[in-house]
Amino acid sequence: MSRINELRFIARIAHMYYMEGKRQSAIAAQLHLSQATVSRMLKRAHDENIVRISLASPEGTYAEAEAALRRQYGLTEAIVVDCAEDRQGAIMSRIGEAAAHFLETTIQPGEVIGVSSWSQTILKMIDNIHPMKQGKARSVVQLLGGLGNPNVQKHATQLTTRLAQLTGGEPLILSAPGVAASREAKIVLLGDSYVRGTIEQFRNISLAVVGIGAIEPSQMLADSGNVFSETELAQVTAGGAVSEISLRFFDAEGRDVKTPLDERVIGMTTEELRAVPRVIALAGGQSKTAAIDAALKSGALDILITDRFTAARLVGLPVETQGAVAGL
Distance between CA atoms of 177 and 162, rounded to whole angstroms? Predict the structure, then answer.
């Protein structure tokens, strides 16, 4: 009977703590125990299966899909947002809102943030960020050349500058085109002290926020003029490319696709991106699903924020699946 008495005592302590809401110190005083004993008994309550914890996920959250993404791609975090329809505009808005909250919540003091500036989804994120009362970031670095069509270029420049204002950091603009006319032209552009200074900051980036694209460029990037010609893109496709991050390409297995076009891109390389401690990718939509899958296999990303439709396609779950209850 000694074990029954022991278990009864453990259950009593667990009830006081979990059901009556008493602090460990109060339980110790009431039962004339040390606080260390109370803590040890609460651990025993878990070990003996007296205490069982279950989490009920709120409506509109997708814990099962998030867990499946983490397992399948080795991510440190995955966020799956609710969205009423599988449409690009609606998806970008929902992802942007979730990304803004995640950035506000997890940004660290002195953070050096890298941002891919030709992304409409990242622009949606910045539209939803609240100004931080105390500046946290040290600087915000543009990851891909920002010069191009003046009517679109302002979005790239404002994106970097606005994020710096919101996070209290210094904006570091990459004042060069994303795609130089030739390898020789790139060498000349890299000779500019401002361009070189921004690129040298790539090694200090602690957090990068990037978009994922299919081979066909996004409307914002296409309008900027920072794209390759159809003939050049055909060469990349012939090399097996299905995905890009800041004009660096991957095949379906996430392997880098290297072509002479790489030598004309002015921006962060895939190797440099892989060296960043924390990389957040914002992407969703049916047309980008294969590209997202490839990018996730590349080993360059740590965190994905996507929509429920895309998540379901990536991990093979029904679209309606929600993480209703997770037992611990």
Answer: 20
Vertex 202, ends 214 and 140: CA angle to 5°?
Answer: 85
Same domain (yes/no): 206, 237: yes
63 compared with 306, residue with greater pLDDT: 306
Q: Are residues 60 and 35 in the same domain?
A: no
pTM listed for this prediction: 0.84
Same domain, 19 and 112: no
**AA identity, residue 171:** P
The DSSP code sequence of 25-72 is HHHHHHHT--HHHHHHHHHHHHHTTSS--EEEPPTT--HHHHHHHHHH
Instruction: Decide: 88 and 96 in contact? Cβ < 8 Å.
Output: no
Same domain (yes/no): 252, 280 = yes
Cα separation, 202 vs 174, whole angstroms: 11
Any alpha helices (H) in the chain, and if so which ranges? 2-14, 24-31, 35-47, 63-73, 88-106, 120-128, 150-167, 183-190, 193-200, 219-224, 230-238, 270-274, 289-297, 308-315
Same domain, 149 and 261: yes
Q: Are 323 and 66 in contact (CB under 8 A)?
A: yes
- The per-residue pLDDT for 153 is 65
Lowest model confidence (mean pLDDT) among 37-51, 98-112, 308-322: 308-322
In this structure, the chain runs to a length of 328
Tell the burial category of 67 from Cβ atoms under 10 Å away from its Cβ (0-12, 13-18, 19+).
middle
Question: Which range marks the domain in which residue 43 is found?
Answer: 2-52
Q: Which residue has the higher pLDDT, 146 or 265?
A: 265
Is residue 256 classed as helix, strand or coil in its secondary structure?
A: strand
What are φ and ψ of residue 265, in 5° steps? -80, 130
CATH at residue 202: 3.40.50.1360
pLDDT at res. 58: 86
pLDDT above 90 for 266: yes
Cα 274–Cα 114–Cα 144 angle in degrees, nearest 5: 90
Instruction: Tell me the pLDDT of the chain averaged across its residues.
Output: 89
User: For the chain, how many structural domains are there in total?
Assistant: 2
Count of beta carbons in the 10 Å neighbourhood of residue 151: 9
